[in-house]
Specification:
Length: 146
């Protein structure tokens, strides 16, 4: 015998086998990557919701401004504008705003007024304006019904 107790040799050999090298295991890496993917998915969903909410707010504001300009035009001239472009040419709007969902100024749906029975020769003008988008809002109503 060498003078070393048998139990001591056994513990030294066991601790050498149990000792792990520094670094990450595959499972640890997979857990971290999975958590990053889940967090990125949540962030993307929140981003998309924020973008749509902002576009809806812009659409409401654009519709309000154009309808207000139509009302001002009617109050000043006692008739509705023949087209939306008349609001720009007569100085009621600087430019026709862009529909945030169709990304165009040409897709607005102009709603014509009823013909005036007192003046049948006068052409009906633009009474209201709506979005040209066929998409539905987050509340379920189509944008072209706002």
């Amino acid at each position: 015998m060498t003078g070393e107790p048998r139990l001591g040799r056994h513990l030294a050999a066991t601790s050498a086998r149990v000792r792990r090298p520094d670094g990450w295991t595959l499972i640890e890496l997979m857990v971290v990557v999975s958590m990053i993917v889940v967090l990125a998915g949540i962030a993307m969903a929140n981003y998309r919701y924020a973008v749509i909410t902002t576009q809806e707010a812009v659409l409401k504001e654009n519709l309000f401004r154009m309808r207000d300009a139509i009302d001002q035009y009617y109050a000043d001239k006692n008739k509705y504008p023949a087209a939306l472009d008349a609001l720009v040419s007569d100085g009621y709007l600087r430019r026709i705003p862009e529909d945030p969902f169709t990304k165009s100024t040409e897709t607005w749906q102009a709603i014509l007024a009823e013909p005036d029975p007192n003046n049948p020769n006068q052409e009906p003008g633009v009474y209201d304006v709506k979005s040209g988008s066929d998409r539905a809002s987050q509340s379920g109503t189509p944008y072209n019904e706002w």
